[in-house]
Specification:
- The chain has 13 helices and 14 strands.
- By secondary structure, it is an alpha/beta fold.
- The protein has 2 domains: about 160 residues, HUPs (Rossmann fold, 3-Layer(aba) Sandwich), CATH 3.40.50.620; about 180 residues, Argininosuccinate synthetase, chain A, domain 2, CATH 3.90.1260.10.
- The protein has a 5-stranded parallel β-sheet with strand order 3-2-1-4-5, sandwiched between helices.
- Strand 8 and strand 9 form a beta hairpin.
- Helix 4 packs across helix 5.
- The termini are far apart.
Amino acid sequence: MAAKTDVKKVVLAYSGGLDTSVILKWLQVEYDCEVVTFTADLGQGEELEPARRKAERAGVKEIYIEDLREEFVREFVFPMFRANAVYEGLYLLGTSIARPLIAKRLVEIAEKTGADAIAHGATGKGNDQVRFELNAYALNPDIRVIAPWREWDLNSREKLIAWAEKHQIEIPKDKRGEAPFSVDANLLHTSSEGKVLEDPAEPAPSYVFQRTVDPESAPDEPEIVEIGFDRGDAISIDGKPYSPAMLLTKLNEYGYKHGVGRLDLVENRFVGMKSRGIYETPGGTILLAAHRGIEQITLDRGAMHLKDELMPRYAELIYNGFWFSPEREMLQAAIDKSQEHVSGTVKVKLYKGSANVVGRASERTIYSLAHVTFEEDMVYDQKDAEGFIKLNALRLKLLARRNKNAESKG
């Protein structure tokens, strides 16, 4: 392992909160290095200029604050939704899909500024340390990664605050008290974990939810939204075109209003433990339902079923931090090929926490009313089914005779 003295400049993923404010100063003290800060706007809904001012007061000369919302949705969220990716049957991967973009920009800024290393504030217990570092190494095999939580002994909030006070780091009054839970947010979702949520037997307090109204308090009248798709990506709502980030923002508003997208999940972390999280993915939940709706009439059975077989593997790769791996890219190529004709419109009914497809239409449809009608038709000879059934039953009949003969012989 290289010595600390080998590090002259570090790019830090910086939010301006307690953890990363301590990390910034800790890097300056322990590594005696220059720190470059990088703060990404991924739609977390927080004011970012205070982070700039705090970095300036900490003596940071190179400060990067970037609005990455459009790139986030266009290049990461939308490709994932083409796959209908869901981890362990429920989780829409809102935190997981944000990490490769942050890692990508950390590496790019390090190269631009001549930094020797990058640093992040993920703990040694979680998935994010793996995601940041695997994605960073995939882009630059020689990059050095500093993970303070795996090096220091500031393993409690009290120790962090004491260290901050010792080094004259400003701590807002509302940050001094013990946080009831931790939150990670971006345009796709919010994730709440820890403290009051750690006992999976106890229901989450109502104050945990931030992106959705209580479904029981949602409007008593349902609302139908029509989402337009082109080659698997959502492009419009009720006929009005939107950019990727603005479309997801609009769907989030609909989801918030109707209490759509709440999830209470105990998941298997990549590092080996189980954890309980409360997720809110309002727009994403609507988008997933709509995307599956348009696929129902535009995807061939073989392609659809193969996609569903590949999806758990694809979702696991994203969850575990392998976005930039060759296997994810191979799967993406197959998924994108399947989306060539996935265009049209889908109507989704929103009502008290639910998002249900109630209509779908496409010029590329392979749904044939002439074939499925219960009325008289001229395109399907029902007698053909007899031979189809006999051929498919042949092996079953041979097995049954074999087994029957074996039983009779004792």
